[in-house]
Design brief:
The chain is of the alpha+beta class and about 120 residues long. About 30% of the residues lie in helices and about 30% in strands. The protein has a 5-stranded antiparallel sheet with strand order 4-3-2-1-5, with helices on one face. A hairpin with a 4-residue loop joins β1 and β2.
Length: about 120
């Protein structure tokens, strides 16, 4: 990197991330909405529910939907970008393989649909 060049963080709204939490230990994944000293907000799900969520996207089922989540920084152990390897595809790559759409596109559609339903209620 050349001197004076600004380095930007990859942790910007819209990034697909995996968040490791403590007390209780959890792993969640999803689209980053915000990250600051107070905490992290994302639209997503528990990592253990990811495959079920993918199947629900293919069948157009509302059985499993993403949630909007906020975790205070005191619970956040680490945040990883969704970066797969040659042997193990990342969550976003798995989403494209199964649904033909990115995780961000699927989560954005779900968010719009739930907002529309809330307004109609």
């Amino acid at each position: 990197m050349r001197a004076g060049a600004a380095m930007t963080s990859p942790f910007q709204p819209g990034a697909i991330v995996i968040v490791y939490l403590r007390e209780p230990r959890e792993r969640v994944c999803g689209m980053l909405l915000s990250l600051d000293a107070v905490g992290i907000a994302l639209a997503g799900m528990d990592v253990g529910s990811f495959q079920d969520w993918l199947r629900a996207r293919v069948t157009r089922s509302d059985e499993i939907a993403a949630s909007h989540m906020f975790y205070p920084m005191a619970r956040v152990e680490r945040v990883l970008m969704d970066e797969g390897t040659v042997d193990v595809p990342g969550l976003d790559a798995q989403c494209v393989t199964v649904t033909g759409r990115t995780m961000r596109e699927n989560l954005s559609d779900e968010t719009r649909a739930s907002s529309t339903q809330e307004c109609a209620s």
